[in-house]
Amino acid sequence: MVEHGSELVKAVVVLAAGVIAVPLFKRLGLGSVLGYLAAGLAIGPSGLKIFADPHSVLDLAEFGVVMFLFVIGLEMQPSRLWSLRREIFGLGLLQVLVCGGLLTGAGVLAGFSPAVAFVGAMGFVLSSTAIVMQMLDERGQTSTKRGQRIVSVLLLEDLSIVPLLAIVAALAPDDGASDGVSKWVQVGIALAALIGLVAVSRYLLNPLFRVLSKARAREVMGAAALLVVLGAALAMQWGGLSMAMGAFAAGVMLSESTFRHQLEADVEPFRGLLLGLFFMGVGMSLDLALMRADWLMLLLGVLVAMVLKSGGVYLVARLMRARHPEALERAALMTQGGEFAFVLYSAAAGAGLIEDHVNALLTAAVILSMAFTPLVVFCLRWLLPDRPAQDMSGVKNIIDAARAGEETPGNVVVIGFGRFGQIACQTLLARGVEVTIIEQDTDMIRTAGRFGFHAYYGDGTRMDVLRAAGTVHAQVLLVCVNDKEAASRIVASVKRAFPLVPVLARAYDRQHAIELIRRGVDWQLRETFESAMAFGGEALRRLGVSEGDIAEVAEDVRRRDAERLQLQMAGGISQGLDLVRSSRWTATPLTKPKRPGNALNDAAAAALQSKERPADDQAPTNPVP
């Protein structure tokens, strides 16, 4: 309908469809992926016909998949892969092979060629990370042992898309235009492109980002992140490989970089938008007429595929010594096909390996399986009401540690690692606490590395950086930056986005402390207050005052200061003070002076007499500490 209309109209329609459909589907518990698919179906050729050619959308949206694989590559740190090697390369690989074998066999028995059956089966084997992770998060199981086993399988499945795309390219029908020699030349070019990309990523990118970080130009870092992703994709395309493989390789090479989370934060807005556009393009490609014509075969195929995959998941779980309830839960959660099936089927159709109507049926089957998954999980929980709702292994570990007199290290995120942050972290280091540092200064990043902390380069005021650094899972967040405005913005953002995370902040002065309290900080400390209290206490000690009296005086001063702070919170910074002819706030003695101030030389006398003398219960005019 809008084929000859403005491109701006099409852009508005796409955005409006996504904005309406995605929140609605998430509210219904069906997830954002199904929302994007439904939005695409509604405005595509089978719906309102606003877009007559879905491929024009998919061509652009393919960059969303490219960026998605780059982000996955960033998560593939060799150290993390090694720590989860048994779950990933044992449990995960076995599940992919068993389920892939079962579904491929079923496809061959249904009359498909082995190549088509293999592609269809492997697409269905790759579970929906979005749906599974959402359900784990809803039940609080992501960080439990059974949740981590599921996450490990998802990780292997996400990793599998790279070799699967290469296999699709290898299985693509030969047009007869190339001989054996030219094929070997193509293989050589592809290998050379891959080796060159690895070398550039390993030896040039980190120095490049280090130089750019010193410029402190946020937009340049964002442009550099896009350059890395798109440049790697282009290099692989020139080498005859998929763009997604290039982006993935670049991500893996940068996975141990201190700039990893900043790169992820810079790419995330583009990735989310373009990946959503990709799913909408898939929804536009759905042929409802074809689905209606083959609805019985489609429905039977979906049910058979879900049963076979669930059976394979359950079998592997039991072989790996999972208990019956956990194996059933894993089978229900992972019964569907996932987002990467659309990527694999699109690549296979583009390579001529599967026909368009087969692609449409396979895509529809995956979408239906995703829609059925919440129902399957609901039925399982209804049938097994007495099964424990959560994996209690984590609680048991805490109890056992407490009985043994051990401390359970927490997870603390620290924003700012200057002198204040370094001193604060010394106590955390002494107790073996897991600490994550967010810093923009590369020298401070290196210092954090010497402490053995996790160090992430990024701007702590940016919500995407906070999310990428794991703030949502933090037990405590420390704001140690020396910028008052930045500290206030961080506190407000964190308390709005992560209200359950306790926030401790460094305050510059009294006014800043009040500002932080109003923004929801859980605890603040004026940076000079406690050091000055200790300083004054030592002075009393040198004057012969007893330790008990020093402690009593200090406690009284702290109490009076807290009371004054409460009054100022209610009535303003000058609450309780007489009017003062000064544009600055005044420091106020918390104990009434026994005598007025006295000048000991002419300069002091001139200073005292230059303005109206303060009242007895006021101190000379000074900035408020």
Based on the model shown, name its key terms.
Rossmann fold, 625 residues, mainly alpha, 4% strand, single chain, disordered C terminus, 3 domains, Na+/H+ antiporter like fold
Structure description:
- With 625 residues, this protein is mainly alpha-helical.
- It has 3 domains: 7-172 and 194-383, Up-down Bundle (Na+/H+ antiporter like fold); 409-527, 3-Layer(aba) Sandwich (Rossmann fold); 579-625, no CATH class.
- 67% of the residues lie in helices and 4% in strands.
- It is built from 27 helices and 6 strands.
- The protein has helices at residues 7-27, 32-43, 54-74, 78-83, 85-109, 114-125, 129-138, 145-171, 180-203, 205-215, 218-238, 243-253, 260-285, 288-293, 295-319, 324-333, 339-350, 356-383, 393-403, 419-430, 442-451, 463-468, 484-497, 510-518, 529-542, 547-571, 602-609; strands at 411-415, 434-439, 454-457, 476-479, 503-507, 523-526.
- A 6-stranded parallel beta sheet has the order 3-2-1-4-5-6, with helices on both faces.
- Helix 17 (339-350) runs antiparallel to helix 18.
- The relative contact order is 0.08.
- The model is unreliable at 386-409, 576-585 and 612-624 (pLDDT under 50).
Which secondary structure elements does this structure contain, and how are they paired or packed?
Blueprint: H1 7-27, H2 32-43, H3 54-74, H4 78-83, H5 85-109, H6 114-125, H7 129-138, H8 145-171, H9 180-203, H10 205-215, H11 218-238, H12 243-253, H13 260-285, H14 288-293, H15 295-319, H16 324-333, H17 339-350, H18 356-383, H19 393-403, E1 411-415, H20 419-430, E2 434-439, H21 442-451, E3 454-457, H22 463-468, E4 476-479, H23 484-497, E5 503-507, H24 510-518, E6 523-526, H25 529-542, H26 547-571, H27 602-609
Parallel strand pairs: 1-2, 1-4, 2-3, 4-5, 5-6
